[in-house]
Each structure stands twice: as C-alpha cells, then as structure tokens.
Amino acid sequence: MSAENAQSLTLVQAVRDGLYGEMERDEDVLVMGEDVGKNGGVFRATQGLYEEFGEDRVIDTPLAESGIIGTAIGMAAYGMRPVPEMQFSGFMYPAFDQIVSHAARLRTRSRGRYTCPMTVRAPYGGGIRAPEHHSESKEAFYVHEPGLKVVVPSTPGDAKGLLAASIRDPDPVVFLEPKLIYRAFREDVPEETYTTELGEAKVRREGEDVSVFTWGAMTRPTVEAAEDLAEEGIDAEVVDLRTLKPMDTDAILDSFRKTGRAAVVHEAPKTGGLAGEIIATIQEEALLYQEAPITRITGFDVPFPLYALEDYYLPEPARIKDGITEAVEF
C-alpha cells in the first residue's frame, strides 16, 4: 500500500473515517446519540461530522437510550440508515428491549415488508480505569438473539471496513468497539471508502500446534503470547473472528482440523461466554480431530472490578500463554 492512498490512523480515527465516508456516499446515513454532534462524542469518534453534515444528519439526543434506539428503528424501517451511538456498551441495557423485541424481529414480524438497516455503535470492554457500567463485555447477549449481527474489530483497517459493511447491511448490526485499543496503535488505512465482508475471520498468525480463537482487544495480547511461545517451541495459530455473528465456523474448523488443539480468549466472564459456543461447534463438527481439552482463557465470573484489580481480571499475555500451553501439553 503506497503512502499516496493510505493514512496512518488509530482505531477510533478509523471509525470516524468510516462514518464520514458512508455519510458522504449515502445521504440516508445519519448518526445520533448523546454528545455526538457539537461535542464530537465522548471518545471523539464523531468529531467534525456535525460541522460537515449539519444537525439534521448528526443529531444530539437526550440521555435516553431506549428513545435513541426506538427512534432509530423507526427511521430504519422507512428507508434511512441510522447509526445510533451508545456512549458505553454498559449503557445499552435500557435499550435492550428495543433491540431484541423490535430491531431484531422487524424483518420476520413484517414478513419481509420492512427491514432495519441500523448499526448500533458502542465502545465496549475494560482496561481504561472507568467507573461501573463502563467496562462490560456482554457480546454474548446480542449473539444469542436471532436477527442481529455482531461485529468486533481489532484493527483500524478492519474497523473502517467492517463499519462500512455494517452500515450497508439491510439488517441490524451491533458494532462493538474495543475502547482499550482506541488509541493503542496506528496502521495504514486506505483513504477511499471500502467494505470488509461480515462473517469472515482473519488469521493473525499462522501455526501448526494449536489454534487460538479471539477477537477485539484480546487479539493483540494473544498474538504477543503466541510470539513468545514460538521462542519456546510452541507454534500457535491465532484466528481473529472479527464478526461474532455470523461466526466464521469454516475458519474455526479449518484451523482446528490442522492443529487438533485449541484455546479461546475473551475478556467476558467464562460462564455463558462465546468460548463455550465455539467449543461446542468444534465438538459437533470436528470431534475426531481433537487431541486435548480446549482451554478457555477469559474474564472471571464476577462483576467487572474497579481500578486495582482491572489488570488482573483481563487476560494478559502471561495468562494467555499458560492457557495455550495447557492445551498443548495435555
């Protein structure tokens, strides 16, 4: 990629760039939420959009999550493509009824007469020393609901491409942005608008000994752990799922059939987390390739802790290494 057609962006800048590109491309796209307009969003993900596109397409709303999503559903049903922002994913619970009872069901309820092309953006996950309700990882809530798609990017390039694909999708998408890595690193991102197909995983590191499945902010420490293990003679393959629904089961099974061993890394609590779904899929479809129990390297089954214990709660390279090693040495 040449410097002429790429720009070095952080993940949150790539989100903003993706929004700008889609709003410029399609006048039916609009953003709405608390402080997204004049203030540019709490993380500045919408900075400058209000000045560029005006108050009719960058809408500052009251602090009322259910109202924000309910309004967006109505707009989507009648042909617009709203992108409502929840300031933090932990604030989505008042809007949960609107998302699962109406957005997810609109196509089925109307027998295809109406769809809901709405993308709900939300910063999610821990690691930034935030107060209560700011650090949850509840992606499994939304994956469980038929009618929703769920996307979690881990790089700036994916954030822009996956966001564009989500906005263009005819059905509702929950787009969870790992705020721990909003400004953690930069990469070259194409200046032009582009899409990254939903439902396709990405192999971040190829390996032969064990498959490690992860997403979002856990991707970088997982790759770091895999690189460390390579120096110890363990060749781990790291698969970044990117889209949790639809999940790329072909990529999961192809990797597992190659290695016969696996671990799953996510920051959500272990019980009811998506690691269990991934493991069940492997058991159903590739059991005869399995050589060892599959390990889960996750957050703990407790409310997300504050400050002093936050780093202990989140999987980090040392704990990830231990979990991968356990799968290999069984």
UniProtKB/TrEMBL annotation:
Gene3D superfamilies per the UniProt record, alphabetical: 3.40.50.920, 3.40.50.970
Biological process terms in GO annotation: organic acid metabolic process; sulfur compound biosynthetic process
Keyword Nucleus included in the entry's annotation: no
Known cofactor(s): thiamine diphosphate
The Transketolase-like pyrimidine-binding domain, residue ranges: 9-184
Protein name: Alpha-ketoacid dehydrogenase subunit beta
Single GO term (MF): oxidoreductase activity
Record Pfam families: Transket_pyr (PF02779), Transketolase_C (PF02780)
Domain of life, source organism: Archaea
ATP-binding as UniProt keyword: no
UniProt keywords, alphabetically: Oxidoreductase, Thiamine pyrophosphate
